[in-house]
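Forwarding these from the shared drive since the link keeps breaking.
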Amino acid sequence: MSVGEAGLMRIYLTGFMGSGKSTVGRVLAQYLECEFLDLDTEIEKRTGRTIPEIFAESENQFRKAETACLQSITRENAVIATGGGCFIHNQQWMLENGKVIYLYVPFEILAERIGADPNRPLWRNAETLYREREVLYRTAPLTVDGTASPEAVAAAIKHRL
């Protein structure tokens, strides 16, 4: 089944940093025979700067760039991996413009996956941020266990669509 056959326009993957949004998104797009976009990569292409460089200026600047980029993606039949805070700051818009899927991964597993990655500007406050965001992530229409292999997670999403 392709995403077009499922009658869907855009699929937004949300979840905390390290939950596998980009990795699962690539696999899911293959399974659904549609395009894959990583929002952070798109932001970097459009701004000519890395995410850590934008964050170094200010998180507010990053959020503005993120929202502008998100809302400019008008492609139909696409899987879009969003940044960890994108759904928090664009919840209503995302819910109105596509299918939002939350990849749930317990914090302990995220900590193992990410460690001290210097490219994760918000990791220093990660546990507190995770608790704050978890409540909002849970409002997504579909929650999927993100602890399995990317192929298994993508297959579970495809099955539930």
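-- next protein --
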Amino acid sequence: MAHFRDSLSVFRSQTASEYASALFREAFGSEFPIPVVYNIRNTIIPPEAWHQYVALYSWDDGTVECVGFCNWMKYKDVYLEGGMAVQNRFYRRLDKSKFAECAAQGGIAQIMMETAAKELVDCVAWFGHCGDKRALKVDLRAGYEQIDDPHLIVKWMQEIDETTKRAWIEEIKQIGPF
């Protein structure tokens, strides 16, 4: 029997629809976010500015399943993180030793964020919207902090002054949910 770390693969894909469409539909009840030209507050976001991360799990019987997805979109000098989804029955199906190994790493969402944090470093910050208490606990463990907005969170990737932080927060608030 393989260890959990040997059974999980987390990677970035330009478009992860072939892996994560069903998971995204199950989690959000909507169609998968295909990278397209997107306009946010008169800033054009090209498809190559989208970074989709996928977590695939290889079960002992050889079956491979998409168990996690998240999207990051580069907007100016920050990333907007959205669409985090983890297959809701995944943890219950793991045997105890693999569950313990997964939990020790923070779970699938945290593993995906930590993987992305090694690669998506060309920014001042990551911003996310979070309305779920359990998801917020994971986000906080991954380095996000709450701000003066009930759902907006931020993970500062560079040291910047408080005035610049405040300006970024105010600008991202104007975008609304993403």
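The longest strand covers residues 64-75. The domain at 4-175 is CATH 3.40.630.30 (Aminopeptidase).

- D.
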